[in-house]
Amino acid sequence: MVLERGASPSVIANARLTGRDRVDPFGDDPVDVHLADGAIVDIAPAGALARRGAVLDAGGAWLVPGLWDHHVHVGPWALSAQRTPLGDASSAAHAARIMADAPVLADGRRVGIGFRDGLWPDAPSLDLLDAATGGIPTYLFNADLHSAWLNTAALLREGFAPDGDGVLREGPAFEVGGRVSEVGPAALDRAVGEAAQAAAGRGVVGIVDLDIAWNEDAWARRLAGGFDALRVEFGVYPDHLERALSEGLRTGDRVRGAASDLVRVGPFKAITDGSLGTRTAACSHSYPGDPHNHGVLAIGPERLRELMTAATAGGLRCAIHAIGDVANTHALDAFAATGAWGCIEHAQLVAHADIPRFARLGVAASVQPEHALDDRDMADTIWAEQTAIVYPLRSLAAADATLLLGSDAPVAPLDPWAALASAVWRTRDGREPWRPEEALDAATALAASTHGGSGLDAASIEPGALADLALCEHDPLAASETELRAMRVAATLLAGRLTHLAL
């Protein structure tokens, strides 16, 4: 029987198992994994049990639990393929020249994404961008999405006075980013479907959608339109918290009115500080050359406790954006004061005394290992005087904190194998490993890439487990950095249904 995407095989034959804390007796020997009703029902040596029904021959590939990306901005991620990449821009002038030749989108805008101006030799200016781009509304989004550089035509289109350097930061940047992503439901849903299928091709079975929007309606629409490539948990932001609570949304609930259970309510998300790249992460030490700049607290400690208390009382777990050490301290304090459960998003700069508090409070660290390599030069320069730990992955794991890996797509590409490579090897492009003392072991990194994270709830391959699975060409626990980044995924299964097949 020839299998195609969408089929539900009864047996995955000739697979090899891998992962952390294994108790099975199979070692590297090939096994048959028998499936029924979306779950694993038995595992036996290859050929030991009769292979009834449709068979997916793994051909010796390695079977791993299906992978999750725990931090995705779905709209900007899906639309990023339509935007001009700015990651190679070496200066403001260079970025402006790139945008001068950028295509004009159907909505009349030029949109670029991915610049990193922290170490540019020159500064963005309105005059510079206007001279290069003229009267066509032009938008350049920082890789971290916390700032946006607009020309005069774009500022006027969005209702901002065209003065200063043309750079919007934090709240205004998020607002404009949301508007630029309003391309119409049909076009956006088509882009989301294509991006989701690409993610399935990398072994991904689920994502946490942290778009700054009321997300339930969009996902109900997509499910009604046939979306079935991934599981999704969507976030709720402060502007929508009252509505979510009044309508009874609770973490884990299915989207209302949907026949499918693929999309569920996720966390309450609050952004408490800025970012390293925009120099707005809330830090205990000031930024170089700017002694009064310790970053910004977009939500102060008292207000954060109020929001988290309300969310927790309403049954929502919390996902609190905190990048600087001051923001992380405040977030942990709020978890302790409110009894909330959930995670801190990013945790890029953490005070030594706060590292053990994650595990003590049961707060997971939702981290993005690719950011560490994207930011290494900025961190070594802009955070050179900080005394807290920068990107403390191993420190958190050693303190028994649960880690959740993700990409923050489109800030980094949605590719769990790239995240694994960066977490384990702390290098790419042939550079020396950066702060290798904070590297994770591969088993922890793989577990952190599953739905339950690296803690006790990490996904496993055993009878009774959900058949969210991926087949890959190398053992992730023994693969090199280059093998991880180039990992070929032969098949991805969602509750036993093939969402990707390349055998």
Polypeptide structure, described:
The protein is built from 17 helices and 23 strands. With 503 residues, the protein is α/β, with parallel strands linked by helices. Strands 1, 2, 3, 4, 5, 21, 22 and 23 form an eight-stranded mixed sheet that branches. The chain has an eight-stranded parallel sheet with strand order 6-12-13-14-15-16-18-20. It has a five-stranded mixed sheet with strand order 7-8-9-10-11, sandwiched between helices. Strand 9 and strand 10 form a beta hairpin. The longest helix has 16 residues.
Task: Please summarize the sheet with the most strands.
Answer: 8 strands, mixed
Please tell me what the overall shape is.
Answer: globular
Low-confidence parts: none
Strand tally: 23
Overall pLDDT score: 97
First-residue to last-residue Cα separation: 14 Å
Radius of gyration: 23 Å
Q: Roughly how much helix do the residues carry, as a percent range? A: 25-40%
Helix segment tally: 17
Which band does the percent of strand residues land in?
15-25%
Structural class: alpha/beta
